[in-house]
Amino acid sequence: MAARAVISGTGSYAPGDPIGNAELKALAGIEFDAERMEARIGIRARHIARLRGLDESTVDFAEKASLQALAAAGVSADEVGLFIVATDTPEYVSPASGILLQGRLQKGESEALAIDISSSCASFVTALDLAARKVASDPGLGKALVVGVYNMPAHLRPGDAFGYSIFADGAGAVLLSRQEGPGASGYVEGAFRADGTQWDFVGVYTGGTRKPVTRELLDAGTYGLELLKKLPGDRNLKLWPPLVRRVLEKAGWKQDSIAHFIFTQINRSVIEEVMGVLGEPMSKTTTVMDRYGYTGSACVPMALDEAVRSGRVKRGDAIVLVASGAGLSVGANLLVY
Predict the structure, then answer these.
(1) Distances in Å between the alpha carbon of 13 and those of 38, 169, 172, 223, 238?
(2) Gap between the Cα atoms of 329 and 191, Å rounded
């Protein structure tokens, strides 16, 4: 019987005390429609390290979520042979955040493979697919740590009401273990879509090789998170249901076998619409944007951790994870917890 990658532990982390919408206006010096934010988007609070005066960033978040996942699995960091940090807000351009995470957790040199995967806000589902396939196919690799982490507030310019009201800090981690022999749990299948012709909607365009940071760009305010074009409001409604059906089709599974669905946590009303299109009740999904805001690549593993710890997802449950990222990148995972 073929080996498989099983999630043996989950964890999550968000820095500092939560910041409600009223307090956010005062701390960030911005104005936005908090009633609409809460009613339609679903965001009531978030965690932002810099607004709390915390000296924490991407790898700090990743480390703390990872320690939770390791503890939940009862696994020592020294047993991990693959570290992947899934993010588009890395600690540095170089070296990779995955390398820094390995150093934090293993305290020195080891035989581990440590990398970053950046696919915008679809980074975690992309990394999970690759890590699960690596674990299942490599007999010498027993355990892998995959961390979705987000620190987009570090890229927000002063006075960015849109950015501060939506984006937040956080991390979610899963520990994958290789298992052989009989058993129901394990990673099943993934499905993805990409369209790089849509690169110029929203992103952090300054700091790479095309637009290195210069005094002129800083003075002009053309740095950090930039919204170049308005994103279509129905984008995820059009993308997610077909992707759910595609990952099930690839695996030869029926939708009624799925116990739980988790989507990118950017808009609760869109998730409600998508579940309606799929003909599924909201009781079969988990949303966490009310407490954590939008945490990009971290939001899907954070919601998964919440679902596991609350008992909404139990051992043997089949689940589908779906995430969207700018650029365009979209992905789905099918697995049995």
Answers:
(1) 22, 9, 7, 27, 31
(2) 11
pLDDT at residue 64 in the model: 98
Q: Domain map of the chain by residue range?
A: 4-179, 186-336
Angstrom distance (rounded) from CA 217 to CA 200: 18
d(CA 203, CA 187): 31
CATH code for the domain defined by 4-179: 3.40.47.10
Radius of gyration for the alpha carbons in the chain, expressed in angstroms and rounded: 19
Beta strand 82-86 with 113-117 is parallel
Q: Which long-range contacts (CB under 8 A, 24 or more apart) does 51-58 make?
A: 51/19, 51/24, 51/27, 51/153, 52/15, 52/16, 52/17, 52/19, 54/15, 54/16, 56/15, 56/169, 57/91, 57/151, 57/154, 58/85, 58/87, 58/89, 58/90, 58/91, 58/97, 58/149, 58/151
- Indicate the burial class of 319 (C-beta count within 10 angstroms; 0-12, 13-18, 19 or more): buried
Q: Of 70, 73, 84, nearest to 112 (Cα)?
A: 84
The tokens describing 143, both together, are 């355990």
**Domain 4-179 identical in fold to domain 186-336:** yes
Residues 90, 152: Cα–Cα separation, whole Å: 9
* Superfamily name and number for 186-336: Thiolase/Chalcone synthase (3.40.47.10)
pLDDT grade for 182, boundaries at 50, 70 and 90: confident
Tokens in use for 27? 């701390």
Residue 1 has pLDDT above 60, yes or no: no
Q: What is the pLDDT of residues 90-125, one digit of tens each?
A: 999 999 999 999 999 999 999 999 999 999 999 999
Phi then psi for residue 186, to 5 deg, are 145, 165
